[in-house]
Amino acid sequence: MFRPSTYQYFFRQPLPPSASPQRAVALLHHHKNIIELSPVAIRHRRLTAQEIPQTDNTQNDNTIYTYEVTDAVSFLPLGLWDTTVSVNIDFSDRDDGVSLTRHAPMGMTMEERWTVVDTDGEIRDLQLEVTLIASRPALFLFTSMMEKNHALYHRGFIDLVVKDMGGGIY
């Protein structure tokens, strides 16, 4: 079998100047906000403690919230091969954001760290750090797509913060 390889990338963009960093972190802690940034996510549900594989729930000392997310994906153009893929995602809330681990098919794991970073006391950035862990062939097949998707998710979350500033989402 193939040994795992890693690929890392990150995105960093300023939050609107009038955005509350505490509110941005609260929006990250509402995990549905991140899950629903994906245009291919068709359903999700939080798993009960009995449904979580023990190895997935021993990531660290923080409370882990695990969701099963089902994506509708198309592997060939013109809808020639459409299917669904289910992925377990572990969320761990942090004081400055959220960490998550996506356990994908083909042994691929995506570790993400979403943080609100105070750059100079006045400007705050939303930073997304991603590490893909998979076999070299899987990285070759999926890295470009995942990096493009994460760029969209990052921009989508900034848009969510702007929308929330207009009167609150919840």
From TrEMBL:
Pfam families: DUF7053. Residues 6-141 form the DUF7053 domain. It comes from the Eukaryota. InterPro entries: DUF7053. This is DUF7053 domain-containing protein. The lineage of its organism: Eukaryota, Fungi, Dikarya, Ascomycota, Pezizomycotina.
